[in-house]
Backbone:
């Protein structure tokens, strides 16, 4: 069928054409069906049915398709119905509880990456894996397919290591200390990190306060070879691109299917060529509520690593409250840098960072007492020195001092209402306050904890300070902090119910 | 946040606004999040992130939202993030295998009808019901919620009956005979029918050859009260509107979850006020491959009916080949009308139609020998007379003769290649040929069978004729009929494998 192009002047992130109902009926097309769009060039697009404004004989063409096929306003475009991709059949098989073959999983992942699946079909794949699960064969194939459908890195020389933290704990800025410590010892650590999705700051957001994190795979390789380590944003690369698409479905449903979590983490580590990997599994977050869940997940990571030929060690860590005292991009960068400058700081931060660096030293056979080895590097100032080299290599100022980092100038202190001890620092509530204050978008926004779990406070002492760049966001954050207190001092009335009386 | 409206000149069937990445970041919004759009009027819309062409400070507004909120190009629009509807939580519960409460199901159905769920969320509801199933409490609540969120019909007087055929068998034009037969006996039968989705003709498509089927609920009621029966397209009404949305997710995945099938059928019957219902369950189609599946489904319908206070009888019918000889809208209308005019025709059609009408007569206590009673009405000519009244009431020509119905004038006969007997008439292949010929869009397109299963043929005799309105569609249909023969004469070589030889 030949139609007249009507260009829709927006990009909507997928290849879509919009048809009049009559034309769609003529070709027997329903919403969501696929057509080959043929103009100067050709592509496959998904059909949407216009509810008006596209006349019979016209074809609404979204910007992506117009560009790809070199279609001009009013020009003639031919469309031909095409069958569904074969992967839809395989997704149906998984929906009905079947086991997928290697070929089937590779086909699905390729179709995810080439955007050939509709949102309903992609959702069906993610949800059926969530409900029915994937067995280890399937998880291994999924991981390999995710690696192979994206960019990969190989290093000719050197021992490549990496670490990954399962999310859920605020303030987890440990990578800013681990990467330079490990690199200072001569290992290669090309760390790709994520930005915050629902947290107050991802490692990429935190590092971005000090340096450029939008690095290509070539830049990651070059910097790692030159200075030993890098902290880049994974999203700027094309490493394991299927993962981003899958996350777009998981996020609105707030699900994190175990098979996809395993594949997602290991695909990224495998793609950058790491052979020795530590997985940090914080226990006490909603993702890993108890030690048993943590051990099970740890076993899964080790087994998947074995199948992929990767050496994996998992560290179950305390995740019941934030790591360190700062939450929010600039505050976390400040805390990490200050800790390296002063060679001391929050114990939860230093112990965790050096502990994980130490595991990497033991895994690679550099020492049998990793923690002591990491501590020596840290205390000697080599961690800071290497960190400055990494910042410089990523285009930042190597001489930056922690106290020069700009923090939001609108602040508010939350005080202890009574004498007592801190019973709870609630991770989710802290994040909610920090995000309301503007994090991660406003780099200077966040929360600084003055008291953590178990510490004694007197009435009127500061529990935490909220930082913001904008007054209205500060107000919002204060309101939330009042309504849902993130730091609870024992002895406080937690909630008040209406009293009852006898009638 | 105040943004400048940029109207996107298409309707895309949902309420969406398109934001620049920077503005979305500022508000902490991700693709798929919801915002309240406030202009002269206000609504809730889903956020899409522009990949270009929407500048910072601009808001792409799709036509639906522009109209609803009375937004003009360039005018100021305020947007405020709003939380997800509560039903997303309930959908998560079902995803994890939980049982939903009555309130939770009602909330979900209301959100489906008000378009408050995104495609990912709606897909999650349908798929989790598909995989985990719904128990009878949940199915009952789903059905009731579907009825209550749409239009309903009540008749002050008379006995209201209805019938429904589970799809899967081509040529099933029985409603055109059942409705007038039942109405001629004094019962009320306000039949709403569907159009073809994947078949060659739905009952609404077939009836539309002779009369207007786009009737409102008021018209359906008025005509039923006046002449006793109606055959209308359900899609023109607002009866059980949740069902249409659910089907939009099921179709691309080619799934038909049992709970949704049950709820969908019974909600439509319940909404039009029917108290006595026959469900026709053809056995031998992919939906109901064998009698055991049929019996199980029948039990489910009866039980759901009992819970809803409806009297349900199921008829397991032979679905191994088409009903009657004609497939396609005009051909089916022709066959149904000709059968009523001549009071004879294909046994499969007459026996099935009168059998089901007869069950309704027995259920309502009008007779103990329903088939004989139905046959008497049919043979007396009252069925035809009533059918003409119904056609007239629906704005058609009451004096139309079957041979005046326009059928596609491009035809091609497929001949028997050898002497033998018809072993198979393949339902799916027949439908594929009829659809390729243009059905259901081209009303005159379709297939007329000259031989059915078990009949003897001589080489060169006609097996079936393909009808089309357009030459190119006829060519396509012939090609498909040659490649995948829908009528197999035994003795034919079905497939030829490479011969093997000893090495």
Residues:
């Amino acid at each position: 069928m030949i139609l007249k192009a009507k260009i829709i002047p927006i990009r909507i992130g997928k290849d879509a054409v919009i048809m009049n109902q009559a034309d769609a009926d003529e070709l027997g097309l329903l919403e969501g069906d696929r057509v080959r769009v043929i103009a100067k060039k050709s592509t496959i697009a998904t059909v949407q049915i216009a509810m008006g404004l596209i006349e019979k004989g016209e074809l609404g063409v979204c910007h992506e398709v117009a560009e790809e096929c070199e279609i001009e306003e009013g020009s003639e475009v031919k469309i031909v119905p095409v069958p569904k991709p074969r992967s839809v059949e395989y997704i149906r098989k998984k929906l009905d509880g079947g086991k997928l073959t290697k070929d089937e999983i590779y086909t699905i992942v390729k179709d995810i990456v080439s955007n050939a699946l509709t949102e309903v079909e992609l959702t069906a794949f993610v949800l059926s894996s969530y409900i029915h699960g994937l067995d280890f064969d399937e998880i291994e194939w999924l991981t390999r397919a995710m690696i192979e459908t994206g960019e990969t890195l190989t290093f000719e020389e050197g021992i490549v290591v990496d670490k990954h933290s399962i999310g859920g704990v605020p303030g987890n800025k440990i990578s800013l200390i681990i990467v330079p410590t490990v690199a200072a010892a001569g290992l290669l650590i090309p760390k790709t990190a994520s930005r915050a999705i629902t947290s107050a700051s991802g490692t990429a957001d935190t590092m971005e306060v000090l340096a450029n994190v939008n690095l290509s795979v070539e830049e990651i390789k070059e910097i790692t070879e030159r200075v030993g380590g890098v902290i880049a944003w994974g999203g700027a690369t094309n490493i394991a691109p299927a993962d981003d698409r899958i996350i777009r479905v998981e996020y609105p449903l707030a699900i994190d299917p175990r098979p996809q979590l395993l594949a997602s983490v290991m695909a990224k580590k495998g793609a950058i060529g790491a052979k020795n990997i530590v997985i940090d599994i914080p226990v006490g977050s909603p993702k890993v509520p108890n030690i048993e869940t943590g051990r099970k997940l740890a076993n899964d990571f080790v087994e998947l690593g074995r199948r992929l030929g990767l050496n994996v060690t998992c560290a179950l860590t305390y995740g019941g409250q934030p790591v360190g005292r700062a939450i929010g991009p600039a505050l976390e960068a400040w805390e990490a840098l200050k800790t390296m400058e002063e060679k001391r700081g929050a114990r939860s931060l230093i112990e965790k960072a050096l502990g994980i660096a130490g595991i990497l030293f033991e895994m690679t056979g550099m020492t049998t007492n990793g923690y002591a080895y990491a501590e020596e590097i840290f205390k000697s100032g080599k961690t800071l020195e290497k960190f400055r080299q990494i910042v410089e290599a990523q285009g930042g100022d190597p001489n930056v001092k922690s106290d020069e980092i700009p923090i939001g100038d609108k602040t508010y202190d939350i005080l202890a209402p009574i004498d007592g001890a801190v019973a709870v620092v609630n991770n989710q509530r802290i994040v909610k306050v920090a995000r309301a204050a503007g994090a991660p978008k406003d780099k200077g926004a966040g929360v600084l904890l003055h008291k953590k779990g178990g510490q004694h406070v007197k009435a009127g002492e500061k529990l935490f300070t909220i930082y913001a760049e904008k007054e209205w966001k500060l107000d919002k954050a204060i309101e939330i902090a009042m309504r849902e207190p993130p730091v609870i001092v024992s002895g406080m009335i937690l909630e008040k119910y209406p009293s009852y009386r006898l009638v």
